[in-house]
Amino acid sequence: xxxxxxxxxxxxxxxxxxxxxxxxxxxxxxxxxxxxxxxxxxxxxxxxxxxxxxxxxxxxxxxxxxxxxxxxxxxxxxxxxxxxxxxxxxxxxxxxxxxxxxxxxxxxxxxxxxxxxxxxxxxxxxxxxxxxxxxxxxxxxxxxxxxxxxxxxxxxxxxxxxxxxxxxxxxxxxxxxxxxxxxxxxxxxxxxxxxxxxxxxxxxxxxxxxxxxxxxxxxxxxxxxxxxxxxxxxxxxxxxxxxxxxxxxxxxxxxxxxxxxxxxxxxxxxxxxxxxxxxxxxxxxxxxxxxxxxxxxxxxxxxxxxxxxxxxxxxxxxxxxxxxxxxxxxxxxxxxxxxxxxxxxxxxxxxxxxxxxxxxxxxxxxxxxxxxxxxxxxxxxxxxxxxxxxxxxxxxxxxxxxxxxxxxxxxxxxxxxxxxxxxxxxxxxxxxxxxxxxxxxxxxxxxxxxxxxxxxxxxxxxxxxxxxxxxxxxxxxxxxxxxxxxxxxxxxxxxxxxxxxxxxxxxxxxxxxxxxxxxxxxxxxxxxxxxxxxxxxxxxx
Length: 541
Ligand SMILES: Cc1cc2nc3c(=O)[nH]c(=O)nc-3n(C[C@H](O)[C@H](O)[C@H](O)COP(=O)(O)OP(=O)(O)OC[C@H]3O[C@@H](n4cnc5c(N)ncnc54)[C@H](O)[C@@H]3O)c2cc1C
Description:
three-stranded antiparallel beta sheet; binds flavin-adenine dinucleotide; seven-stranded antiparallel beta sheet
């Protein structure tokens, strides 16, 4: 087995391994630093689309949220025509990758016990987070202490993919399980897949070297670059390929289409001085002291990752909002694709009760677009916490395609963010609800000022403007090489093999046909485990 990775091996990089330095590698040499094209429905903004360019890919850059979608959402994959892809098969595959460190904050169901990825409930528990459960309980949401077991609705404390020694646990941990039959080539970029007729026979590297595959080629370049590699290799929309002068191996117009992403919106609050915040690390002296503790293997603020999560349906916000949004979506006669129909069904009973539409994360320290107060500002030094809201099933869909035959040119990414009216109303309504959460007892007792968006935002029109200017991606692009029947826009079949060619599979987030109500990594590991099973079975035949 040969693994080819364009980026370096980042296992010695503290910005990757130290949990509390999450986010510090964004924009660095470990990031592909992709962006969208200007998004007309979102004030023409260009959105960041960070992606890991390092061994482990985006699992080296991610924010270590470790959670899981619902039974109904994975069973929907099978109903879409993907035989064998359901909760029953994906749940054990997801559990297989993980070893959870038991904690009184989490029950027994929903966590793995034997896999290479280590997970913990973070030991840094900000004092003000003690308001998380009672506040959401007061707003009608039940406590759910086993939120990774297929029912994620409720208010929870969730794990992070962090080892008990407080280093990031991520894809390269799998290398510890491998034997001599694996070679890893880092800093090596694949430029295209080579075909003999319609059989994949190997790859050409960026420097022109050709490598032959004895059995098959597996493409795992992620939702932005897998479609590009397919197109560069002659698999994609024949019209586009011909325009770019690429010989067509298989006309597959769905390559790069069906792009979906979770959108997020955030609010942040200035804490009363008696509640120490993660923002303390903005102070260089304190940061050095905490880093010294971390390096001495002692409890440190640098251990921190978020652990407070809530998933809930629109009825938790209000019955009125739930009814209005359901009517808006049901009246939309353009939502006719197989995937859109499933998403539509999530807003109506019975699924509207079990498939959450919204997520809120309690995140200590500043997160937002306005920026933490500058060192010259009198506000520098304040402690804040953020509520990050995520819309689980946006209806806007976009695409990603290559711009030219040059592998070095960045892809054209067009998510069409906020282009569906549901998405804008959802983002605005969720932002407004974040204020309601923060203003409810006992959370209302821990802060003095709403730092962002602030008191100027009051009317529904204001919330809409706030959403237009502040909605971001939460880095969950999927669907661009979808696991679906070819007639419904599929690129891969239930064996993850690309339609119309031989010996070529895709195994990454691009195969996920529709967005789950969860962050993506547990699902991506589960897909990989299931793929490994299929490949081993096929090889041993
Ligand atoms: C900033 C950020 C935060 C996130 N936070 C979370 C979180 O907290 N929890 C969660 O569950 N999910 C999170 N995610 C999402 C999750 O990490 C991704 O969904 C997941 O890693 C996707 O896996 P993938 O295999 O599809 O792609 P990737 O992990 O992106 O891997 C693709 C790999 O292919 C390599 N590659 C690309 N092109 C080539 C080429 N031509 N030749 C050779 N190699 C190539 C890349 O360098 C990369 O290593 C986050 C993602 C990001 C970017």
